[in-house]
Design brief:
transmembrane; mainly alpha; 2 domains; single chain; 0% strand
């Protein structure tokens, strides 16, 4: 139940982005059943937008699979960061937790992990499953009701996801002792993303920025 409660701040972002994803999937020609399967099996906002767009433009299955694979490579970093808190679990249980890990649940989990050496398996399931079911409902609502929404931007739905991440970052910074260090790391990450994007690295720019910023953060922390 605590995991369910801790997931509540992210639900608005899931609802808005999931709703928008459902609208895009519907306009791409997917049926309600196909939208349901996409949200349940793929379960990734950016990847679902990409899949819907490529399906609408008659992209090949191979191209769609490889594009989504590279876009979602960041999950390697997310899982690597969370895994130390679940070393007390079996590999199978870790895989079950990792299969439902998202950017948002990662942010909530890392906030929860401050000052802790381990995280509760049951708490993580409460967080993950709540997010998973909410995402599915939002996708289906978008697919069904989206036909009456011609301009989602007017409702501010396009800013819901960035706003949610800003909130998660602020919550983490408020609970950190060395705020200056973490702010510097965040600035480094932003600068790296900009330069990586200018170098046309695409979705790899997020991974490059995360690795560089995290490395610089470790170096600065040890030199302190």
């Amino acid at each position: 139940m605590q995991g369910v409660k801790d997931c509540i701040p992210t639900l608005l972002g899931y609802l808005s982005i999931g709703f928008a994803a459902g609208v895009i999937e519907m306009t791409a020609g997917l049926s309600l059943a196909e939208t349901a399967l996409l949200s349940l099996i793929l379960y990734a906002g950016s990847a679902q937008f990409i899949a819907a767009g490529m399906l609408a433009s008659n992209g090949s299955a191979t191209a769609i699979i490889f594009t989504i694979f590279f876009v979602n490579l960041r999950h390697l970093l997310l899982s690597a960061a969370v895994s130390p808190y679940f070393r007390h679990l079996t590999p199978l249980k870790n895989m079950w937790i990792g299969s439902l890990l998202t950017d948002e649940s990662f942010g909530v989990a890392m906030t929860r992990a401050i000052g802790r050496k381990t995280l509760s398996e049951r708490w993580m399931h409460g967080l993950n499953i709540t997010a998973y079911l909410n995402w599915f409902v939002a996708n289906m609502a978008g697919a069904y009701f989206g036909r009456w929404i011609t301009n989602p931007e007017r409702l501010g739905l396009d800013f819901a996801l960035p706003a949610m991440f800003i909130g998660l970052v602020v919550l983490q910074l408020m609970q950190r002792k060395n705020k200056k260090l973490h702010i510097n790391v965040a600035i480094i990450a932003v600068v790296c993303v900009i330069f990586a994007s200018m170098a046309s690295l695409g979705s790899m720019s997020v991974i490059v920025a995360a690795v560089i910023a995290a490395t610089m953060g470790v170096v600065m922390e040890r030199w302190k």
